Amino acid sequence: MAAATAAARDAYGRLLSWLAWQWRDIAAAEDALAEAFATALACWPRDGVPTSPEGWLMTAAKRNLLKMARRRRRDEDPTMTVLFPTEHDEAPAAVAVPDDRLRLMFVCAHPAIDPTVRSALMLQTVLGLDAARIAEAFLVSGEAMTKRLVRAKAKIKATGIRFEEPGPDELALRLDAVLDAIYGAYTLHWGQADDAASRDLAEEALFLAELVAAHMPDDAEALGLLALVLFCEARRPAQLDAQGDFVPLDRQDPGRWDAARIERARSLLARAAARNEPGPFQIEAAIQAAHCHRLQTGSTPWSDIVRLYERLLALHPAIGARIGHAVAVAQATGDPMAGLRLLEQIDGKAVRAHQPWAAARAHLLAALPGRQADAAEAYRDALALTREPALQRHLARQMAALRGPLH
To answer: What is the pTM of this model?
Structure first.
């Protein structure tokens, strides 16, 4: 059981990308791989874990695809020739895998696919996330996300969308969706610093950001995304204290940050800025760079951060940016009510179930005289919206120590 779980976490995306690319059918590849994992769970405890779990799973999934094809009476289809297993089958070559995965992400960004589902399709197909987890990033229900993904995969199969690497012009047109998916994957680990699967997801997102920047070294937003992820990853060592409890960014010890990663991120951001093609990821990276000024100065330039958020909102008024802007305004002005007003201007039922919004609201209410009861209720809401123990302990301590001054 443990070996199959580890193989699923470590190899699912690589296996699915290779199978989908060879078979030209994402849904069929998912079904075949799921059946292979189910077989592994039944066989490995009895027969022992194979020397190459990934190779075993690949062979089993290819056999499953072959059986599916036979059931569909497609024995003459030439795509089947790549699926016949041999005694020499092994895991896909490590060098070729990243290109397969990146190509599959660009396939998922095909213009014939609904723009609202392209990034979500990549998260499921390339990173192996389930619909419920993906729904968290897009602030929709798991049921709604499942329906979107099923429709998208059905359209890919029905319309015969080509599984070919896009040309240079097409690559640029599809890049935004790919970058959004990578960033979406990275943001899903926030607030879950002591969860192994979430750490793996963050590392996977960093790997993909590196890969895209390497393939498109002159694209300012690709460089900006890589810089953004590096700034955030540089602070990972300080996200938990000695007891394993969550530490908010403004209370982290800068001495525990990775200075080398911060310096590399600054260099990438400078390269992106030199192209004079501003975009959301570059501005978000600049916001993170401003937070990292504390490493040199000991203070956070909140007024500069407010101005950067204003630029970001003009380009991309996402909910995360609006929450960050509200908190920055409260910090820059020393007026928590100003930040609270901005938070409560964000409309929509979905945001009320968005943990970062609830936590920010609780923090600002706690800083207002006479609002302790409201703050306690808001902290209870924030606690109910996270399953991460380290974050739960932090929120519980904040609720137990309600006091007036804004931290």
So the answer is: 0.78
Name the β-bridge partners of 240. Answer: 246
pLDDT of residue 249: 93
All structural domains of the chain, each given as residue ranges with its CATH number in brackets, are 189-283 (no CATH), 301-400 (1.25.40)
Q: What is the pLDDT of residue 4?
A: 60
CA distance 225 to 268: 9
Rounded to the nearest 5 degrees, what angle is found at the Cα of 12, between the Cα atoms of 7 and 14? Answer: 115
- Write the single-letter amino acid at 120: A
Give the pLDDT of residue 46.
Answer: 76
Query: Rounded to an integer, what is the distance from CA 55 to the centroid of its chain?
Result: 27
Cα angle at 343 between 341 and 349, to 5 degrees? 125
Q: What is the pLDDT of residue 159?
A: 75
**Residue 236: per-residue pLDDT:** 92
- Give the model's pLDDT for residue 6: 64
Counting as low any pLDDT under 50, the low residues of the chain are 73-98, 404-407
